[in-house]
Amino acid sequence: MTELVALVVAALGTYLWRCLGVAFSGRVNIESEFFRWIACVSYAMVAGLVVRIIVLPVGLLAQVPTPLRLLACGVALALMVWPHPRWGGLVPGLLAGSLVIALASLAL
Amino acid sequence: MTNVHWPLDSGRAAFLKGCKDALGVPAAVLFAGMMGFGALCHSVGLSAWAAAGTTIFMFALPGQVVFAEMVATGASGLVIGVAAMLTATRFMPMTLALLPQIPLNRRGRWLYGAVHFLSMTSWAIAMRDFPKLDPVHRGPYFAGLGLVCWLCSIPGTVLGYLLAGEVPLAITLALVFLNPLFFLLSFTEVRPRANRLAIGLGAAIGPLTYLAAPNASLFSAGLIGGSLAYLLNRLMRS
Predict the structure, then answer these.
(1) A17 vs B118: CB contact, 8 Å cut-off?
(2) Cβ–Cβ < 8 Å for A107, A85
(3) Quick one: B195 and B238 in the same domain?
């Protein structure tokens, strides 16, 4: 019962923000300063959330020590920005980063 | 329009292009992240239907993690729901930053449906690739992208739940880590200076506001970091 109540409230509460965004988007001019500001706010929110998940995780990831999580991010970022046609880019970065996490957690 | 890199014939072609672009790294990352979430749900004792239900009806991984953790701690349904709702605040500015890029006469009531399929993944891709598309094709492209991301997430959640306990912890942790890592890496592709500043400031402020007030942390990090970035960029422009 708790799960059902929680799910209904959480689903409606999540959709509410999406719905409000659609409702107000009709009044936003793409050339306006408000649009530039709201883009900054959304990027800051998403970045804050992602860094929080990595630095202060709740749940399973908390089992991996923070320095190793940061090491995985460092390795992945370095590969991401490396312009090598085969070993640089998104997929090598993702694979290397998750490999560091997997190896780190084998040692736990 | 200037700088349209992807000439497409029709809305249908744009929709299919969105589906196709989702079926690669984005779908794989979401599938893996949702597998990790399914495993988490199993480990905290959530029922399988609740695990799948959060993916189908919420489709917001950070809120879903909060949901699973709080069910495990025995919080009441209403408290859990409200906490999950607060983590979803980001969808309003995200939507406001994305949808105005679709011409007004191409927006309609269908967006109230399509917006449910918006995730950080599809948002990051759409924000990056909308400028490459003819504005009239952005709507169908976004719909295809979001729909496929959502469709891949549901079997991911169920599979992760079913395989929990069978899969070594190292694999589960690597899967859980893929999702935040994907966003971290995608930030390096953001070009406008104001948005780059916003990412830097949000990243610096987010953990701090989380320590101060976990539930309101996203909202405050976004407003403070985003506004500072906006002002800083204006100063640098003049």
Answers:
(1) no
(2) no
(3) yes
Tell whether B176 and B197 lie within a shared domain: no
Count CB neighbours of B93 within 10 A.
25
Is there a domain that residue B159 lies in? yes
Which of B58, B204, B207 is facing A14, going by the closest CB pair? B58
Q: Residue B121 is part of which domain span? A: 11-181
**Does B6 contact chain A (CB < 8 Å)?**
no
C-alpha of B109 from chain center: 22
Sign of torsion, CA B130 B136 B139 B141? negative
Contact A74/B at CB under 8 A: no
The closest CB to that of A102, out of B46, B97, B170, belongs to B170
Mind listing the pLDDT tens digit for each residue in B138-190?
999 999 999 999 999 999 999 999 998 888 889 989 988 988 999 999 999 99
pTM above 0.80, yes or no: yes
Residue to mutate among B65, B185, B217, with most A CBs inside 10 A, is B185
Nearest-Cα residue of chain A relative to residue B120: A46
Cβ proximity of A59 and B65 under 8 Å: yes
Residue B1 lies in a domain: no
Is B107 found in the same domain as B217? no
Q: What is the DSSP letter of B90?
A: T
**Terminal alpha carbon distance of chain B:** 28
Task: Write b or e for each residue in A19-40: b if 16 or more Cβ atoms lie within 10 A of its Cβ, otherwise e.
Answer: bbbbeebeebeeeeeebbbbbb
pLDDT in tens, B24-73: 989 998 999 899 899 889 988 899 999 999 999 999 988 898 898 888 88
- What is the pLDDT, as a whole number, of residue B14? 94
Residues 8-37 of chain B with CB under 8 A from chain A are 25, 29, 36
Does residue B143 contact residue B15 with C-beta atoms inside 8 Å? yes
